[in-house]
Every structure is written in structure tokens, then in C-alpha cells.
Amino acid sequence: MLRGFYTAGSAMIANQRYQDSLTNNMSNSLTPGYKQDRAAFRAFPEMLIKNMETHDVPTKNGLTLPFNQTVGSINSGMYMQEDIPLFTQGDVQPTDIPTDLAIQNGNLPDETGSIFFTVQNNEGETRLTRNGNFTVDAQGYLTSSEGHYVLNQDGDRIQTGTENFEVTENGEVISPFDNTLIGIAYHPNANDLTKEGSNLYAVNEEAPVNARAEAGVGFQVLQGNLERSNVDPQQVMTEMMRSYRNFEMNQQVVRMYDQSMDLAANQVGRLR
Q: Quick one: what percent of the chain has pLDDT higher than 70?
């Protein structure tokens, strides 16, 4: 009976985590460049159940022989292992704001590859992002909406000095202050990246490469446009309802086991 408690309880925890992941997707459905998370569920290790007992042998000495019979296998529950971002292209929406930039994916040599802007976080470390909602700060540097400096292909901050600048489809920033190429990175396996806050991704092992120098990588940088989130609100709402129903179902199972144990402890075992 306790095994049923654990199985239903683990399913409740997994669905609660899934609900949190779906809520995060829904809350970022309007965040430019946001990539929705997909939940990966796993089952706990499978166990083999056997019936073990002894049989009496009708002999003079009264021997007993061990005996076991395989009953079958059972899983002891489930859990949500991780969130995996889905790096599909979001819709590109015109904004007519010169500081807004969007990456339009072209040909990519790897199915799991993706292209990113390079920015500098508050600790001075290089991060990747698809959010091109940029602005120009008081010192004339091109920054993200969260205040992260946008980097060029050499890893230096881009200073335009004004919001009146042009960006070519190759990502060259042409301004009265300076001309430079905005940093565009390509990672062959975007699933290896670690998702951080503020729509940033950190590199774990394999470093990204310059997308312009990588063979077979095609892209366009569109000025005055933003890439929308790739979240489908209708699909997320459907998944939220399904997760909620699964949670309720397992909650009923836990309640049923609780009532059965109450009867076993307080009714069946009562001495009269």
C-alpha cells in the first residue's frame, strides 16, 4: 500500500513542477526572443517483484526448500527531470524602432544549432541571447533592455553615440561614432546551454563560434524588428489544464490510500 502512496505522490510533485514550467512559459509569451521550455519526464528505476517462500518436502527428516516465483515488474513513480528550451524561430514583428534588432535564421548545418547575439552580463561575462530589444544608454553604448552591453565580434562593447544608426543584414553597425560588426554567435548544440535569467544563456562546455566564419550558417539581422516569443498560448493553456487534471487524479488516489490505511489501523485491527 505504501508503494501506491509513493507512486501517486511522485506524480503529484512532477505535475506541480510541470505546472510551474508552463506558467513560466505563459508569463514570457510576450518577451522578445524568449524560447519556451519543454518538460522531460522520467520514471524511477524499474523493480522486479518476486514471491519468495519455502516449501515443505514430505521426507523423513522434514526438509524445506526455498522457492521463488517472479510476479512481474513495477515502476516506483515518475519525476520531471529537466526543462529543455525549444530553439525554433519566433515570428518577426516590425516595430520601426531603430534600436530593435531581430535575427532571422537561414540555413543551419546542425538540427540542434542556433544563432545568438552576444552580450556582457553584470559580472562582465559573455552571454548569448535572442532578445534584440536594445537601447542606447547615457554613455552612448548599445545595451539590452536589462542593461547588458551588446558586444561586437571582437568581444568589445558597441558605442554608437546615438540612436540614429543603421544595421545591415550582415549585422554591421554603421553610426557617426564608429562602424563595427555586431557579435553573432553560432552554437551547434543549443541544448548544451544553461538558461539564466533575463533571457540569457551561459556556455557550459563547447564554446560558440563566429556565425559569419562558420560554413553553412546563414542568417539576417533585421533592424526595426523584434523576434517574438515562440510560445503558443493556446497550447500552453491546454497543457496546463491537462497537468491540473493529472494532479487532481493522483490527489484522489492519495486520499483513497489514506482512507484505506485509516480503516486498516483503526477499524480492522481494533480489539473487541
A: 88
